[in-house]
Amino acid sequence: MSGPRRGLIQARHLPNLLTGLRLLLAPLLPWLLVSGRAGAALAVAALAGLSDALDGWLAKRFGWGSRLGSLLDPIADKLMLGLAMLGLWLVAALPGWLLLLVALRDLVIVAGAVAWWRLAGPYDGRPTWLGKLTTFAQVLLVLACLLGLVGWLPWAPYAGQAVLVVAMLTFASGLDYVIRYGVMAWRHSRKPAA
């Protein structure tokens, strides 16, 4: 295959490569935090955020989306967020109960999707507006904690209230998914057999 066409074929894999970069960077976050390198952890988080925005833009702008990318992108995002929260818990910047609540919510979402898939087939896994808001709030909380650790944000006076807001959103979002899955299963069970 000639040069320009071959280069185009390779370029379309760039969003997946950026997602792979996030998967590789994620385990660095807790290690950097525990090592006392909050500035480096903030830089890794910023790089992950930029790569996430760039891979999404490339996929949409040039039509470079792929099935693999649609599966790996949310995994990379969840891994990055989860390991960042784990690292912040390990350095006592976030409470353990919040980490547990976030993990339980994600477990509910995954378990519900798997149960639906076994019951009725593929499930459109697009997040709800409450799910998106919750993830956004969790990302802001992690960012605020990191900025507080490096001394760029007077975070301590507001940390408790912010944690409570994120906890309430996380709980509400988890409950929303349980109700949605329950309603979907109930409707499916009432459909006449084909």
From TrEMBL:
It comes from Arenimonas fontis. Pathway: Phospholipid metabolism; phosphatidylglycerol biosynthesis; phosphatidylglycerol from CDP-diacylglycerol: step 1/2. One of its GO terms (molecular function) is CDP-diacylglycerol-glycerol-3-phosphate 3-phosphatidyltransferase activity. It is found in: Membrane. Coiled coil: none annotated. Pfam families: CDP-OH_P_transf (PF01066). It comes from the Bacteria. Its EC number is 2.7.8.5. The keyword Manganese does not apply. The chain crosses the membrane at residues 71-91, 129-152, 158-179. Belongs to the CDP-alcohol phosphatidyltransferase class-I family. GO terms for cellular component: membrane. Keywords: Lipid biosynthesis, Lipid metabolism, Membrane, Phospholipid biosynthesis, Phospholipid metabolism, Transferase, Transmembrane, Transmembrane helix. It catalyses: a CDP-1,2-diacyl-sn-glycerol + sn-glycerol 3-phosphate = a 1,2-diacyl-sn-glycero-3-phospho-(1'-sn-glycero-3'-phosphate) + CMP + H(+). This is CDP-diacylglycerol--glycerol-3-phosphate 3-phosphatidyltransferase. The lineage of its organism: Bacteria, Pseudomonadati, Pseudomonadota, Gammaproteobacteria, Lysobacterales. It is a multi-pass membrane protein. One of its GO terms (biological process) is glycerophospholipid biosynthetic process.
